[in-house]
């Protein structure tokens, strides 16, 4: 069982709600992979025992959102949008305690090459927050494998820090979420890293490549590839971000299904070969390549409200955080209520991708 978590800043509480509902349904994962805020949630899951995971996720998100001024509940979308934009502007101005804060001086006034010259915000507080909520020994030695993606800023190579191959700490999680120019790069063993979302915002492909076994994957995306045509310039900004950060999801799913069809064709051809060719090294190698393990991917995709614009990924108000959390729980409930199609596919040994929570 795998949990795949996309990046998306403040929208990450949707993923926390998804895990909350999965845990409540006694569904636990063996591997969790994340990018950016998905990496943070992954660390909170892998770095805590099952009975504490939801509690730690809740405490983390409460810390990030509990300090913003609260407003009355407005049902009118225009008023809610105004409050939403104001809250995001407040975050952009003052930062988020426990996560990041604005630098004292603009980057252009800092010495070239210094960390202060490379970002508008200082994210050092996030290391302290992660240390407070994550048991790093459990994360590295426990039963849940974790992988987080980042990109090397000097050569542009994408890399996954994987607990199956190396020991992870707060630096690796922060590297996965170091989105420029807002947040600074993170140095690990002489190399400098930025947010993995610059290359790919979904770690699904990595999980599929490294786990050669039958698998059920819950992929939790924070940006939807499908939305209405923009009507205003603010809509354009929001839609551009959705497309940029969601594009890889469909590409990976399509590639998975294409590979399944190709393997089926190879197996049919191999079945027609004469018996005396079965021991040929090339045939043996081709059989190994054509071996297929059923993989079922269940998509859980956050679909933004009408009042959420391009600032939705840095609007950390408590009300919005709780709404995202509830939306994640609701998506799991909807998926579970229609899960018979997934169960049937698993029993039949087939590979497929599902979006059962889509209205």
Helix content: 40-55%
Q: Which stretches are poorly predicted, pLDDT < 50 over at least 5 residues? A: none
CATH class: Alpha Beta
Beta content comes to 5-15%
Count of discrete structural domains: 1
- Class from helix and strand fractions: alpha/beta
Task: Write down the Rg.
Answer: 22 Å
Largest sheet: 9 strands, mixed
**How many beta-strand elements?**
11
Distance between the termini: 25 Å
Instruction: Give the rounded overall mean pLDDT.
Output: 89
Assign an overall shape.
globular
CATH architecture: 3-Layer(aba) Sandwich
Number of helices: 12
One letter per element, helices H and strands E, the order comes to EHEHHHEEHHEEHEEHEHHEHHE
- What is the fold named in CATH at topology level? Cytosolic phospholipase A2 catalytic domain
Task: Give me a quick take on this structure.
The mean pLDDT is 89. 45% of the residues lie in helices and 14% in strands. It has one domain: Cytosolic phospholipase A2 catalytic domain, CATH 3.40.1090.
């Amino acid at each position: 069982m795998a949990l795949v978590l996309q990046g998306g800043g403040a929208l990450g509480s949707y993923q926390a709600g998804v895990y909350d509902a999965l845990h409540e349904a006694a569904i636990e994962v063996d591997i969790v992979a994340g990018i950016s805020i998905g990496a943070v949630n992954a660390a909170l899951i892998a770095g805590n025992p099952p009975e504490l995971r939801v509690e730690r996720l809740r405490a983390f998100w409460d810390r990030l959102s509990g300090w913003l001024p609260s407003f009355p509940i407005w049902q009118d979308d225009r008023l809610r949008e105004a409050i939403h934009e104001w809250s995001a502007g407040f975050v952009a101005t003052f930062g988020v305690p426990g996560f990041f804060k604005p630098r004292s001086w603009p980057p252009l006034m800092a010495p070239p090459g210094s960390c202060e010259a490379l970002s508008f915000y200082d994210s050092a507080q996030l290391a302290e927050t992660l240390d407070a909520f994550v048991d790093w020994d459990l994360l590295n030695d426990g039963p849940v494998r974790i992988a987080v993606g980042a990109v090397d800023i000097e050569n542009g190579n994408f890399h996954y820090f994987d607990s199956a191959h190396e020991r992870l700490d707060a630096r690796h999680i922060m590297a996965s979420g170091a989105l420029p120019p807002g947040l600074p790069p993170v140095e690990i063993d002489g190399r400098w890293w930025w947010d993995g979302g610059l290359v790919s915002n979904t770690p699904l492909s990595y999980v599929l490549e490294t786990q050669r076994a039958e698998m059920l994957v819950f992929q939790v995306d924070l940006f939807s590839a499908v939305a209405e045509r923009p009507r205003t310039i603010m809509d354009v900004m929001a839609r551009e971000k959705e497309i940029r950060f969601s594009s890889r999801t469909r590409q990976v799913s399509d590639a998975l299904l294409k590979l399944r069809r190709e393997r089926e064709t190879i197996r049919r051809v191999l079945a027609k070969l004469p018996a005396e060719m079965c021991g040929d090294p090339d045939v043996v190698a081709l059989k190994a390549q054509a071996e297929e393990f059923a993989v079922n991917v269940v998509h859980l995709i956050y679909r933004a409200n009408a009042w959420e614009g391009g600032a939705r990924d840095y609007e950390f108000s408590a009300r919005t955080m709780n709404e995202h959390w509830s939306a994640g729980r609701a998506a799991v409930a909807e998926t579970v209520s229609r899960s018979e199609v997934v169960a049937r596919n698993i029993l039949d040994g087939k590979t497929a991708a599902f979006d059962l929570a889509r209205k």
